[in-house]
Design brief:
Helix 1 packs across helix 2. 51% of the residues lie in helices and 6% in strands. The protein folds into 2 domains: 51 residues, no CATH class; 39 residues, no CATH class. A two-stranded antiparallel ribbon has the order 1-2. The chain has 3 helices and 2 strands; from the N terminus they run ααββα. The chain is mainly α. Bound molecules: zinc ion. Zinc ion (ZN) binds next to loops. The site of zinc ion has 5 residues, from loops.
C-alpha cells in the first residue's frame, strides 16, 4: 500500500465524534430505529420539495431477519445492500433458475 494514504484531518474526526455523541444521546432516548425512520421521512420531504422524491436513503428490516443476496456486481434485487428478506431471496432464486 502506498505511503500517500489520505488521512482524515483531525478537525473532521472531532466533528464526527461530536456527531456520534449527539446521535447516541438521541438514540438512547427515542431508539436508533426511530432515528432512521425520522431521517428517511425528513430526507424524503426535503427531496419532494425539490421534485426528487425517491432519492432518500431507506432503512430496511433487522439484519438478523435477512439473508445474503448472493450478487457479485450491480444488483437490482438488493441495490448494492448485499442482503434481502428470505421471501425476496426465494423469488429471486426462482426467477433466476427458470
Ligand atoms: Zn444483490
Amino acid at each position: 500500500m502506498s505511503e500517500d494514504v489520505f488521512e482524515i484531518p483531525e478537525y473532521i474526526l472531532a466533528k464526527w465524534a461530536e456527531e456520534k455523541k449527539f446521535i447516541k444521546q438521541v438514540g438512547e432516548r427515542i431508539g436508533y430505529g426511530r432515528i432512521m425512520q425520522i431521517g428517511q421521512e425528513l430526507w424524503r420531504e426535503q427531496l419532494e420539495e425539490m421534485g426528487l422524491a425517491g432519492g432518500e436513503f431507506a432503512s430496511g428490516p433487522c439484519v438478523a431477519s435477512t439473508v445474503p443476496c448472493g450478487c457479485k456486481d450491480s444488483c437490482g434485487w438488493c441495490c448494492g445492500a448485499g442482503w434481502l428478506t428470505e421471501h425476496v431471496k426465494a423469488v429471486k432464486d426462482k426467477m433466476e433458475n427458470e
